[in-house]
Specification:
The protein has three helices and seven strands. By secondary structure, it is α+β, with helices and mostly antiparallel strands. The chain has a five-stranded antiparallel sheet, sandwiched between helices. The longest helix is centred in the first third of the chain and has 14 residues.
Amino acid sequence: MSEERTGGGMAAGGTPRPITLYGDPVLHRPCASVPADHADLVQLVADMFASMYAANGVGLAANQIGVSLRVFVLDCPDADERETVAVVVNPVLELPDDRDLVEANEGCLSVPGAHSMLSRPGAARVTGTGLRGEPVQITGTGLLARCLQHECDHLDGTVYVDRLGRRARKEALAVANLAGAGPA
């Protein structure tokens, strides 16, 4: 982790947690909505940022540290290299009607070391709330658009390798030493 990657202080007091690996049931089922009065949300988000930075990631969904709640964090550049650092609680993904697909190499902290070509829309928007309940809207292109889609997929119980063909999925899981892993 570089000195600059601190999540705008949102990682302060956070403790890195182990990343949940593909095959763990928490990654393969939809996450529950975060209630407005969730007592441990600030600590959870700090731990998520700390976990993401410790693993050198650009995004992390709560279920990737074993917590089945609809929240993700990110520290990710868009197509113009503008950095977005955010937490989104109860996100809703919106994709453009004109879905120009962009094929790019994609990886996941829950499938360590593996990367596969995957087509996704080149733009995306997520709406939700922030850490204190304030409205959040993030519109992204490039890697940020991919990250928004990837993290929302996690919260819906889908890991990027689930979008690959059988052969590519098998190869990615073998690279990650997760051969034979999958939804229970």
